[in-house]
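If you are new to this repository, start here. Below is one unmodified record pulled from the training split, so you can see the exact layout before writing a loader.
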Amino acid sequence: MMHGTQATAVDVAGARAASLPPLSSAYSLSAAQLSTFENAGHIKLPGVLAADELEAYRPRLNEVVVTRNAQSHGMEQKVAGAGKNWMFVNNLWAHDATARAFVTCRRFGRIAADLLGVDAVRLFRDQSYFKGAGGANTAWHQDAYFMPLDTKKIVTMWIPLTRITRDLAPMDYVTGSHHAGYLGTSNGDDASLDRFAGALVEKGYAIHNYETLEAGDVAAHSAWTLHSSRSNTSMMTREVIVIVFFADGARMTRDPPLLQNAPAQEHFARLIRKQNRETSLPGIQYGELAQGPMVPLAYCRSWEAQS
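And here is the target side for that same chain:
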C-alpha cells in the first residue's frame, strides 16, 4: 500500500502526463528520405515536433534529468566520468510518466519502423545527452557495437529540446559507414578524434555535420553509423534526448571474442554490453527473443488498423 504522499505524487505525475499532447499523429517520410537514410546511414528530419508540443514536454524532461543525474549509476558513471560537465541519465522513461509519454510515443516509434523498413520496433533505451558549457568530446563510435542484439535493424534518434548550432556540438556522421561493419572506436581527445577522422577520409569516407537543428527537428542514424561530437564551446547546455529502437524479433547475443591484446576501448565496450544486458534485457538468456518490460513494443503497424 502506498502512503499518502507517495499516492499524491503518483496522482500528480499521472495527471500531468494525461494533459500532455499525445504525439500520436504520423510524421510521414518520403521515398527520398527513406533512400537517404538507407544509403547515408543518417538523416535530419525537420519539424518532427511542433513548438507547442516541445514546450509542453521540455520543462519536465529537464527536471527529471537534473534530479536523476545526481543518482546516476553503471553506464552513466562510466560515460560521465570520461567527459566533464555532462548530465547523462539512462532510461528516463522508466522513472517518470511524462518522460514515458515522450519516449514511447507512437510518432517516434513509427518513424523508427519506417526508417528500418520493419513492421514493429521495440524501445532499447533512452538517454539524456545534456552536454554543459565546456562539456567534453564524444569519441568516434558505433552504437550497435555496444548492444547485445543479433539484428542490424537498430536506429538512434537524436532529439534536441532547443535549437542546436555548431558551437553546441551537433553530431559528425561518417556517411555510409553503417554498411562496413565494425570500424573501431577512438579516444575522446581532439588529437585522437582528428587522427581517426583522417584515416576514414583516406579510405574514401565523407564526414557530415548538419550544423544547425531547430527545436523540434530530429537527427536519426543507423546504430552502425560511426559518429562523434566535439566539445560544447557555447555558454549553454546542449539539451538532447536520445532514443534507440530495434526491430521486433531480435535476439540477445553473446559478446564477440576479446583478443588477448585488445585495446582498452574493447574492454570498455564489453562492460557497456554487460550493463545494457542488465538494464534493458534482465532475465533474458543468450539466443532468446529480446522481449520484456524494459524493451516494450514501441510501434506495430497493426495498431493503425485498430485505431
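Two things worth knowing about this chain: Residues 26-306 form a domain with the Jelly Rolls fold (CATH 2.60.120.620). The first helix runs from residue 4 to 18.
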